[in-house]
Amino acid sequence: MKPAAFAYAKARSLDHAIELLGRHDGQARVLAGGQSLIATLNMRLDAPDLLVDINRVAGLDCIARRNGYIEIGALVRHAAAERSDVIRREAPLIARAMPHIGHPAIRNRGTVGGSIALADPAAELPACLLALGGEVEIAGAQGRRTVAADAFFKGLFDTALGSGDVLTAIRVPAAAPATRTGFAEFSRRHGDYALVGLAASATAEGRSLRDVRLAYFGVGATAVRARQAEAALIGTGLDAAVAALEQDLAPEDDVQANAAVKRQLAGVLLRRVAAQLTEQSA
Ligand SMILES: Cc1cc2nc3c(=O)[nH]c(=O)nc-3n(C[C@H](O)[C@H](O)[C@H](O)COP(=O)(O)OP(=O)(O)OC[C@H]3O[C@@H](n4cnc5c(N)ncnc54)[C@H](O)[C@@H]3O)c2cc1C
């Protein structure tokens, strides 16, 4: 299919992008890598008046360590994040997740900011952001604001971004020597969106773990924390944590798998990811 007619504008700066978005009263969309947006337009799931291309906006493609955080600019391509030494060293969960996002051609164009802004419930990066207790930097007509990952993802493809906002960067705490991370997903073929996935972080204390954060994806309208399982993993043990997923997760049948299969897979993933977390502590 072909998209409905739309106008196109190349933003010269962040302020220019915000001004263009503001002029169109919710009928303009930010264009980043276009890997999801263009498909959405082609299928006529959306028909905006204007696309505001932010690819030439300076300063949105940096990866840097600042004040104990790793900041990843919105326009950092998945492929650049995958190759980044800073991310491999200081945000290893994101490095683990990157190869699972689509295929090389998609990772060459798709952006970190686009993936977080889209908030696909089966996507890897929103879950990583949640598991790391990260935050999102947003610029809009009222200025800049920072939103914690726990508050950013609101519902199905719904986030704290307003229609006139540009996501400028994400930030995650830089890994410390005691930081442990785990990542696993099930997908039908490598590169497909996951049926179910799990991103996790923790802090090692001797052979034990504390501050465990488990973020599942593909099991709800957003990536979700499995808080009862987190507590059980610290306090009671792995079997109790797997049992606690019954309270934490409420997957529904979808085109990929029914709810019972998703529940079963969620438990298997927890066992795999828990092994990754504790292997690093051994
Ligand atoms: C075949 C295929 C397989 C894929 N597989 C996976 C996968 O396994 N896992 C996965 O996570 N993704 C997958 N993707 C999606 C891919 O990761 C996209 O790149 C990503 O979801 C969106 O990034 P983008 O830069 O292309 O955003 P775009 O397509 O340009 O934009 C997506 C949405 O976000 C908004 N947006 C983008 N940037 C900003 C910003 N800075 N501020 C505010 N709003 C913004 C746009 O307006 C639009 O609504 C796949 C895509 C394809 C085509």
Shape: globular
Supply the number of structural domains.
3
- Sequence of strands across the biggest β-sheet: 4-5-10-6-7
Determine the N-to-C terminus distance: 54 Å
Strand content: 25-35%
What's the count of strands? 14
CATH architecture of the largest domain: 2-Layer Sandwich
Q: Low-confidence spans: pLDDT under 50, at least 5 residues?
A: none
The unique ligands bound to this protein are: flavin-adenine dinucleotide
Structural class: alpha+beta
Mean pLDDT: 96
Largest sheet: 5 strands, antiparallel
Order of helices and strands: EHEHEEEHHHHHHEEHEEEEEEEHHH
CATH names the topology of the largest domain as Uridine Diphospho-n-acetylenolpyruvylglucosamine Reductase, domain 3
Radius of gyration: 19 Å
The number of helical elements comes to 12
Helix content: 25-40%
CATH C-level class of the largest domain is: Alpha Beta
Tell me what the structure shows.
By secondary structure, this protein is α+β, with helices and mostly antiparallel strands. It folds into three domains: 7-53, Uridine Diphospho-n-acetylenolpyruvylglucosamine Reductase, domain 2; 63-173, Uridine Diphospho-n-acetylenolpyruvylglucosamine Reductase, domain 3 (2-Layer Sandwich); 181-279, 2-Layer Sandwich (Enolase-like, domain 1), CATH 3.30.390. Helices cover 36% and strands 27% of the residues. The protein has helices spanning 14-23, 37-42, 78-83, 85-90, 92-97, 104-109, 112-118, 124-131, 149-152, 227-235, 238-248, 259-281, and strands at residues 7-10, 28-31, 50-53, 63-66, 69-73, 135-140, 143-148, 153-155, 158-159, 166-173, 179-186, 196-205, 208-217, 224-225. The strands form four sheets. Strands 4-5-10-6-7 form a five-stranded antiparallel sheet, with helices on both faces. A four-stranded antiparallel sheet has the order 11-12-13-14. The model has no long low-confidence stretch (mean pLDDT 96). Bound molecules: flavin-adenine dinucleotide. Residues 29-37, 39, 74, 101-102, 106, 110-111, 113-115, 117-118, 120, 123-125, 161, 166-167, 193 line the site of flavin-adenine dinucleotide.
